[in-house]
């Protein structure tokens, strides 16, 4: 606390002393008919002469600033730099609020547009479904054909194998048969129930 | 209660067109009885109302008006339209694709099940996949509506337990959803 107090007091004292000195000087130049109080005030005002000039300059600058107020058109700001985006600006002269539809003509107009759209979509859907169905049918037929061919081939090979086996057997039998020339066939024994 | 806007009307018609085909134009221009019918939005629900009735209903305060005419469905908060079972009498006569369910499939469907191949009595030819269909009993009583799971050609090859149509709404909802169906 002490150090803060001491410089304050010193400054006060300095100011006082300066004021006294100035007043003494002013008394010499000032006219005699002025009261002591007025003198004091004058003396106080003198060092603030600079202040007076300052205020003058301020007022002058304010007047000049007032003159320099530009409108937005004068500034020539490009439109993209503006605050309001172009999309939000509503077209002038258009009625504000909702646009109701109640007369049958406009209702029919809207309906025909919607109907045409839907119809087109449904038709295309049906067409696509038909095409897909055709493709599927063709594929199915092809697969069936292929399957049949495969089965036929398999049967052929089976038959071929059987024939080969048969022919081999026959050969073997022929060889056997050649030696005992024509034996009478043995009758097989049969068993019957009931 | 108010009229529908252009966007709302388009969304509604798109939904109706999935079930009705060209028949929905009859909804607007049906002058058999001489009365014109209009669509009205009350809160988030859309009603199909006779114009005279709609005009009379303007005298009822919005907050006090519970319902009028036939409720077709409601707009979800994302802006889509959801058809309610109450729209069935309006859709069914104009429907394009139909599936007739045998008597053994009626109850499973009305309890909220999907339509199985084994339950189908007959169906419209050339139903594409994911297309709106109206489900009817064999004596032509509309039971509900749904979306086809497969095209007719594919469904033919399906096994009996396979799903033919996914349920969207059925008349069983009148009992099951009794508490919420008519509350706004």
Automatic annotation (TrEMBL), chain A:
Subcellular location(s) of the protein: Nucleus, Nucleolus
One function term, GO molecular function aspect: mRNA binding
Keywords assigned by UniProt, alphabetized: Coiled coil, mRNA transport, Nucleus, Ribosome biogenesis, Transport
Residue span of region Disordered: 1-75, 136-194
Sequence ranges of Basic residues compositional bias: 185-194
Bias type Basic and acidic residues, positions: 136-159
Record carries keyword Lipoprotein: no
Domain of life the protein comes from: Eukaryota
GO cellular component, one term: preribosome, large subunit precursor
Record carries keyword Transmembrane: no
Family: Belongs to the LOC1 family.
Protein's job: Required for efficient assembly and nuclear export of the 60S ribosomal subunit.
Identification of the protein by name: 60S ribosomal subunit assembly/export protein LOC1
Lineage: Eukaryota, Fungi, Dikarya, Ascomycota, Pezizomycotina
Automatic annotation (TrEMBL), chain B:
Record-annotated PUA domain positions: 97-172
Keywords annotated in UniProt: Nucleus, Ribosome biogenesis, RNA-binding
Presence of the UniProt keyword Secreted in the record: no
An example molecular function term from Gene Ontology annotations: RNA binding
Domain of life: Eukaryota
Compartmental location: Nucleus, Nucleolus
GO CC, alphabetical: nucleolus
One GO-annotated biological process of the protein: assembly of large subunit precursor of preribosome
This protein's record includes keyword 4Fe-4S: no
Function: Required for proper 27S pre-rRNA processing and 60S ribosome subunit assembly.
Family: Belongs to the NIP7 family.
Complex formation: Interacts with pre-ribosome complex.
Protein name: 60S ribosome subunit biogenesis protein NIP7
